[in-house]
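User: Need the bound-state model for FE3-S4 cluster:
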Amino acid sequence: MAFDIDMIKAVYAQITERVEAARKIVNHPLTLSEKILYAHLWDGNPSKVFTRGKDYVDFAPDRIACQDATAQMALLQFMQAGKPKVAVPTTVHCDHLIQAKIGADKDLQEALNTSNEVFNFLGSVSNKYGIGFWKPGAGIIHQVVLENYAFPGGMMIGTDSHTVNAGGLGMVAIGVGGADAVDVMAGMPWELKFPKLIGVKLTGKLSGWSSSKDVILKVADILTVKGGTGAIIEYFGEGAKSISCTGKGTICNMGAEVGATTSTFGYDDSMERYLRITGRDEVADAANQVRAHLTGDPEAYANPEKHFDQLIEINLSELKPHINGPFTPDLATPVGEMTEKAKKNDWPMEVEWGLIGSCTNSSYEDLTRAASVAQQAIDKKLKTRAEFGINPGSEMIRYTAERDGLLEVFEKLDARIFTNACGPCIGQWARAGADKQPKNTIVHSFNRNFSKRADGNPNTHAFVTSPEMVAAIAISGRLDFNPMTDKLTNESGEEVMLEEPTGMEFPPKGFDVEDSGYVAPPADGSNVEVVVAPDSKRLQLLTPFEPWDGKNITGAKLLIKAFGKCTTDHISMAGPWLRYRGHLDNISDNCLIGAVNAFGKETNKVKNQVTGKYGEVPATQRVYKAEGIPTVVVGDHNYGEGSSREHAAMEPRHLGVKVVLVKSFARIHETNLKKQGMLGITFANENDYDLIQEDDTFNFIDLENFAPDKPLTVEIVHADGSKDTIKANHTYNQAQIKWFKAGSALNLIKTQNKS
Ligand code: F3S
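Assistant: Bound-state model below.
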């Protein structure tokens, strides 16, 4: 049994008291999101009202899930915390490091050949610290979580932005950076700005070619890629109840594409059915006992304009199938309106590939609906004009789909069945000819369709649609194919039409699997040895950062004065560097290489004040480190925006940068810097940014008196000997100053463990 029923029962045991306490305090009927948030406060019973979109609140998540790319650094850090076990149930899923090329077996073997040391590392750390481990080929993190771990009313965090998929089973599930996950693994609270709430009222019922995917494609159309930022999207209404649990998962999954913190649905019969068919009667029985607390209060849904910050209404009976794209998931086109739009925009009409699967759309229902279309093609003597690829979401889905003949249907159309893994969804697709960068169109049932995401080709126009529409379009070979009106000519020259897809929510014979790919941790993992080869290029055990020596930082040289936008991508690039996510020293060779130097306006070219020569940022910084010279990075507004990746804070720290002085920080990056023991400060007067010159030396002359709310004084010594003395603000509280003194938050946790 993979799920932790005792933990779930413990959550339900306190939910009544906490929800009632919250209702009294806020003094109005509660939405589901509020119930889950208030029931998961770190301090226990709610005692104050939090302002949505404003207050930062400490939460106590119930679970953590990590995927193989992000888990490496998260677990390397956790190993530094000196804890014998993770504090909350945690799982690791090997799904990102598997390329789709030839087909499942060969591709999986190839992944094992190239990334085995990473998988072995993740497996052994999991064993040692009580973490559930899902082997390569076991499935995609979010599908596996939905099948095994998600539970109504729960709160989880995961080191992947589509963690939000678990909202399909009534959770508040949120994607975070590795550093946040490590805190929770180590028994610390998790901080989040209390989200705003967007209500989506669903009426009517889906039918014909319309599916749950179209709900979120429509929501993306309405909200755009930024419209959900800082908010939880909560779906409710009769229409919501009519959607299957996995369909709800699809909708929540793509909430990430509108920037939402997460999305969720209230507990209903569809969720109960899903829990039972996936072997979790105990969870369903426990949930039924607190059913009223696992959905919003009826009064909140009756007057949604009063209880949500924004309200959207969608009538499912009128919802048309959509195709969104290319290059952005919010560019929506209803099927039937594509001809004109594609011509106008010069999108290639011929479709080369149709891809089904990913964490977004690989449920049994999805596969049966797509297979029902594929079967018609066989029956009506149609051939697929585009190539066809399928990524099952989990081994349980794959095994069951094979047993029930679904995969055979696709194979009859020459579909390639790829490994149960992310594959093309995360650019792990060795697509023949993509390197020549031809302009072309593909359709897929994934979530993201940014330029280059699937095959690395910037000229691939990727469109997102439902699995059944992918099947229909792949058969027709045309982007503007409308199965509701258009005829196709079969091998006998006859004109035929595709009928509406039919699907099954669950397999009639139930789900089955021989080897799910799950490895349970031993009860006592203390003797498990975690092996990292000293000469490994991909993994490196971390050495704790040095604590602060208690002295003012003096004689610090300017490494770079970043000009304009400097996101976490500029600080720690992705792409080919993903390979080194588990090797801090190697990945540090990308440190700040994307930042534009204010002097010369070039990237990755800075003056080395030791040699007087210009060089690359990481190499220059390594010279300063070797000479024992502290350095400062200066930045503009919103420094460190973008992803929450902790590498952007760890790399400069590892290379010996001591201070990041900017006009303003993106908040998550600022916190990450603090966690890694860096001094992240802001110009009290932002015009002082203009005082910084290329050969400057910095003295932080009152750091010895570092205290909350007390600005620091910075002496800037210019090359001609002249000086400017400025003030810098900071947001370190007492606890965060302790992190700084200890050298990092993890160093502090470790000392606390010992005392
Ligand atoms: Fe991400 Fe894998 Fe899903 S890449 S979007 S978790 S299929």
